[in-house]
Write a structure and sequence with these properties.
By secondary structure, this protein is mostly helical. It is 66% helix and 5% strand.
């Protein structure tokens, strides 16, 4: 037996209908950009692990590529933070992604500093934490559902 659930007028909500998980949010372009950035950042973190593995097995040329990957990741996480802020401005209930991405930004800066100092005992586990956080952000980004119409019925 299905129960009718009245939709709320909140800008971000969970769809109560069966099989419709995720958040409905305003800003379809920002959602798309968030998804692209999350996938790219996760891909770069996975590439970073591969490059680090090649470096520690003796291919010293991979260290420069690993350092470049860190720079690319820094740019991507800053862009993720910007899109999270823009998404939050349109959907005030979406606060945690901003906090999570800010934590990733700070961890990325920390891990680069530790790597430059060759403090691998901390560099590697923090790098793995960044990878896990980016995987969670990919899941989050794909659970967002862009709203097709606003409360007045206008297309966005």
């Amino acid at each position: 037996m299905e129960t009718a659930v009245e939709p709320t007028n909140s800008p971000a909500r969970t769809d109560p209908r069966p099989g419709r998980g995720g958040r409905e949010v305003r800003g379809p372009v920002i959602v798309l950009v968030s998804r692209v950035l999350a996938v790219l950042a996760l891909a770069v973190t996975l590439l970073q692990a591969a490059l680090a593995g090649l470096f520690v097995t003796g291919d010293v040329e991979m260290l420069d590529r690993h350092r470049l990957g860190g720079t690319v990741l820094s740019v991507l996480v800053l862009a993720q933070l910007l899109t999270a802020v823009l998404l939050w401005r349109r959907n005030r209930r979406l606060r945690w992604p901003m906090a999570a991405i800010l934590a990733v930004v700070l961890l990325t800066a920390l891990v680069q500093s530790l790597g430059d100092r060759r403090l691998l005992g901390w560099h590697m586990p923090i790098g793995m934490a960044i990878c896990a956080a980016e995987a969670a952000l990919v899941c989050w980004a794909f659970l967002l559902r862009p709203a097709r119409h606003d409360d007045a019925g206008e297309a966005r």
